């Protein structure tokens, strides 16, 4: 079992201080663990002795031993499908079943990574309908940006999804301080995401990053990070846990907006029926 797996499934019951350390270590894995004891303790809001006690719980007698093991896992962030396929040997007696099971495990393992206060903060930002919301993703994660935007534009006005890096300059040009920019970026991280985040930061927008648990170069450049696991038995990373997070975010926002959503949804349905965009109209469904 590697260190990441030990953090996700610790061998013993965790104290509140331990849970804070796990959150910090996983949210910026493996970089956080390469800091000094004092720096890690400060990031997690715990004492230096708490760090040492936790390190022993996960099987290391000294902090230096823990860091040495972390260094060996630094290449995780740059893994390509080819490397992961080679590591697994490319042989699986039941890839369908194993992928399904490991993906569900990734979904369950991602839940403890989410900080409740971060979700509450993001929902609060998204509830400000006078603020613009822009979503942007990468080659694979672009569909997550589009999926979130498809829901947001039903729930509130002033939303947009950037579908091409060619749109970046024109779209971000009109960002105002306090607007929300949501970036999806997973290993192997894309340069277009770094450019977009930098532009949004310059515009003083609130920048949110959906990413994996590895060392994304954007973590220190955003206001809020939501991490998820991406490893399964497949040689390709999974974005299913991230999709679940998007679904949960939409549900949380819908609940927060309350009755105002019902009024907007009624208007949306009326307009769609007028335009004939649904196969069955409301009247046909009621018959």
UniProtKB/TrEMBL annotation:
The keyword Zinc does not apply. One of its GO terms (molecular function) is DNA-binding transcription factor activity. It comes from the Bacteria. InterPro entries: Homeodomain-like_sf (IPR009057), HTH_RpiR (IPR000281), RpiR-like (IPR047640), RpiR-like_SIS (IPR035472), SIS_dom (IPR001347), SIS_dom_sf (IPR046348), WH-like_DNA-bd_sf (IPR036388). Keywords: DNA-binding, Transcription, Transcription regulation. GO terms for biological process: carbohydrate derivative metabolic process. Residues 1-77 form the HTH rpiR-type domain. Pfam families: HTH_6, SIS. PANTHER family: GLUCOKINASE, RPIR-FAMILY TRANSCRIPTIONAL REGULATOR. This is RpiR family transcriptional regulator.
